[in-house]
Design goal:
The protein is of the alpha+beta class and 166 residues long. The protein has one domain: Aminopeptidase, CATH 3.40.630. The chain has six helices and six strands; from the N terminus they run H-H-E-H-E-E-H-E-H-E-E-H. It has a six-stranded mixed β-sheet with strand order 1-2-3-4-6-5, sandwiched between helices. The two termini are 18 Å apart. Mean pLDDT is 92; it is low at 162-166. Bound molecules: coenzyme A (COA). Coenzyme A binds next to strand 3, helix 4 and helix 5.
């Protein structure tokens, strides 16, 4: 977790967004979420001694060496996972799960009774991750994205939130 919205953090997130999403958040959107008390962020960084990765990231404006991040919105006792991504070359190593667990821990700390998220119906890796953590599919939003439906997921406190994070 990082409490303040610093320039390097904004640039690093923007770099991950561009690499991981077809509809990346702009630096303005990122800055405004970081500056708002309603959003929670979690981050994963490349190892300090992984100089090759750190140099590659720095060359793309990612000075802190961030390789993944997640962002959630707190809305009273109902929270929402807004973004989660891990750079392609670092996937399938448990980082996405770690980011999600950090968000869920933070949601739990603010007293969330349920957590929602939307995901492209065709995004199998993300859906498998959410289902592994106990999220339950509760509906579909037809043609929510230009090229896909959205699957809507919920995780209820009594449905594993505490069990997942303890
Ligand atoms: C979704 C994403 C964050 C997963 O990150 P990751 O670091 O690769 O995930 P993990 O290694 O922690 O995997 C955790 C679980 O997720 C599931 N999973 C992850 N990648 C998967 C894949 N390619 N196929 C099937 N299941 C997968 C598995 O259940 C896995 O558990 P396991 O290792 O015990 O099988 C990553 O694929 C990503 O950044 N995708 C692009 C951005 C995106 O689509 N974000 C979600 C929409 S907002």
């Amino acid at each position: 977790m990082e409490p303040s919205a610093s320039g390097p953090t904004i640039s690093a997130i923007a770099m991950l967004e561009k690499r991981c999403f077809s509809d990346p958040w702009s630096e303005n959107v990122i800055a405004s979420a970081l500056g708002s008390g309603n959003y929670i962020f979690s981050y994963i960084y490349a190892a300090e001694d992984d100089l090759e990765t750190r140099e590659m990231l720095r060359a793309e404006g990612n000075v802190p060496g961030m390789i993944g991040y997640a962002c959630g919105l707190i809305s009273l006792d109902q929270c929402e996972v807004q973004r989660i991504c891990v750079l392609k070359e670092f996937r399938k190593r448990g980082f996405g799960e770690r980011l999600m667990n950090e968000l869920l821990t933070a949601f739990n700390a603010v007293g969330a009774s349920s957590v929602f998220l939307e995901v492209r119906a065709g995004n199998v890796p993300a859906r498998m991750l959410y289902e592994k953590l106990g999220f339950r599919e509760i509906g579909t939003r037809k043609a929510y994205y230009a090229d896909d439906d959205a699957a809507v997921y919920e995780l209820e406190t009594g449905n594993g939130l505490r069990a997942t994070i303890n």
